[in-house]
Design brief:
- The chain has 315 residues and is mostly beta strands.
- Strands 14-11-10-7-6-3-2-1-15 form a nine-stranded antiparallel β-sheet, with no helix packed on it. The protein has a five-stranded antiparallel β-sheet with strand order 17-25-24-21-22. A five-stranded antiparallel β-sheet has the order 19-20-23-26-27.
Length: 315
């Protein structure tokens, strides 16, 4: 014989817990749906471009890859303009923006609270909306709802368009296939090692041979100097280039503007020597390659960098 059961408490508990379960499901659904629209990539911003990429701690950051203007000041290529971009459960991001102040565009120590959200139009076009607070301690955190409506904004909002995926170093980089560009001097065969071939600025891939243009190796090199030309990858300019000869560091040049001038080595060593290059971009990508040369006449035993200090070279 079946015993009767009072189902009212069970029904009451089920109804009580249902809203909690429903909210959890809805929250999960929102996070899943919004996570599908990635914020990583290169975005237009006020006449320039910003590359947004993930950091090692789970946040994101925005690096200026083409100089852009915000308010009255220019943010140069290589500046990490957006930091601590933390993903929120609703699909938006909260973080900080670097501000400048005055006609001299002095750096403001106080960062401004900022919000980001990738929106999608009915036609499927992505738009990055960014809303800013002035760099004041009392300013609230701005927010951007899923429908694009902003709140707590004390400065304003900007909408950006996607320009390209984040540039990537070719998988063949470092495979030993070439790695030599046409720097303008010499001809004939190249004896290069390291570096990469394949891909190029048109393919969205970064290679050593497209970025670092070393002179081709001839039977021997009679010049007393050697010019290394540098070509910035699209949307990821160079920020540092380290040069070694026969394993000894010759120079380490930093700065996007400085590297546009290239590098000239003078007073090259006698005999056979190998020039090795390690280049780093503003998005922290690394490219390396090398080339071996043979001098036609005895050198001075000194390696010089035009406009810089001289370094003694042994061996």
């Amino acid at each position: 014989m079946f015993r009767s059961m009072n189902i009212r408490p069970l029904a009451r508990r089920a109804l009580t817990s249902f809203p909690i379960v429903l909210l959890a499901v809805l929250a999960l659904g929102v996070s899943v749906a919004t996570a599908a629209i990635s914020i990583e990539g290169v975005w237009s911003f006020n006449g320039g471009a910003v590359g947004i990429q993930a950091s090692t701690n789970g946040t994101f950051e925005g690096t200026v890859v083409t100089p852009t203007r915000f308010a009255e000041c220019v943010h140069p290529a290589g500046e990490v303009m957006w930091t601590d971009m933390q993903p929120q459960t609703d699909g938006s991001f909260w973080g900080l923006h670097q501000w400048y102040n005055g006609s001299q565009c002095e750096v403001v120590p106080q960062l401004g609270h900022t919000a980001w959200r990738v929106l999608e139009t009915p036609s499927g076009v992505r738009v990055l909306k960014v809303c800013f607070d002035k760099p004041e301690a009392s300013a609230p955190q701005p927010t951007i709802a899923a429908n694009g409506k902003e709140a707590n904004v004390t400065y304003g909002c900007v909408e950006s368009s996607p320009l390209a995926p984040l540039p990537k170093v070719s998988e063949e980089e470092g495979s030993g296939k070439g790695g030599i560009g046409n720097g303008g001097s010499g001809g004939g065969s190249n004896g290069g090692s390291g570096g990469g071939s394949g891909g190029g600025s048109g393919s969205g891939l970064i290679t050593f041979s497209d970025t670092v243009l070393l002179p081709n190796a001839k039977a021997c090199v009679s010049q007393t100097s050697l010019k290394i030309k540098l070509r910035d990858p699209k949307y990821d300019p160079l920020k540092e280039v380290l040069v070694k000869i026969n394993g000894k560091q010759v120079t380490d040049i930093k700065g996007v503007k400085r590297l546009k001038k290239g590098i000239t080595l003078t007073k090259l060593p006698a005999g056979t020597y190998k020039i090795s290059i390690l280049a780093t971009t503003v998005l922290r990508q690394r490219l390396s390659g090398s080339q071996t040369y043979k001098s036609c006449a005895p050198g001075s035993g000194l390696i010089g960098l035009k406009g810089g200090k001289k370094h003694h070279h042994h061996g």
